[in-house]
Write a structure and sequence with these properties.
The protein is an alpha+beta fold. It is globular, with a radius of gyration of 14 Å. Helices cover 27% and strands 21% of the residues. The strands form 2 sheets. A 4-stranded mixed β-sheet has the order 1-4-3-2. The chain has one domain. The chain has 2 helices and 6 strands, in the order E-H-H-E-E-E-E-E.
């Protein structure tokens, strides 16, 4: 199970030496956060995020099951096809948090 604190990932992404490898992971985590928080912000989302893992060297195309637990500020995800699962913390207030992208009643479109 992946347990990811976005604050640590962002520090490593911008200041660490693992940038190429982190770029793909950060993009997928951003997609999961955006999807999970869009509903709370009243934004409809047309498609579910797809798994990015490569078990046995083959791309998994499972549709991720995503659950936002607002009382603990955690997002959980699981792929029903390959079994990959994880939890994301430290996402609140970041660019991909759709619940915080409002300024004076205006929604920022990204």
């Amino acid at each position: 199970m992946w347990v990811i604190d976005m604050q640590n990932w962002l520090d490593n992404f911008f200041f660490g030496n693992g940038i190429p490898r982190l770029k793909v992971g950060l993009k997928k985590l951003a997609e999961i956060i955006t999807y999970a928080t869009a509903g709370l912000a009243g934004i409809s989302v047309d498609s579910h995020p797809i798994c990015w893992r490569r078990p046995n060297g083959k791309t998994c195309r499972g549709v991720l099951e995503i659950e936002l637990m607002p009382e603990v500020d955690e997002i959980f995800w699981k792929c029903p096809v390959c079994g990959t699962k994880g939890a994301i913390t430290g996402w609140k207030g970041e660019l991909w948090d759709m619940t915080s992208n409002q300024l004076d009643g205006c929604i920022i479109l990204q």
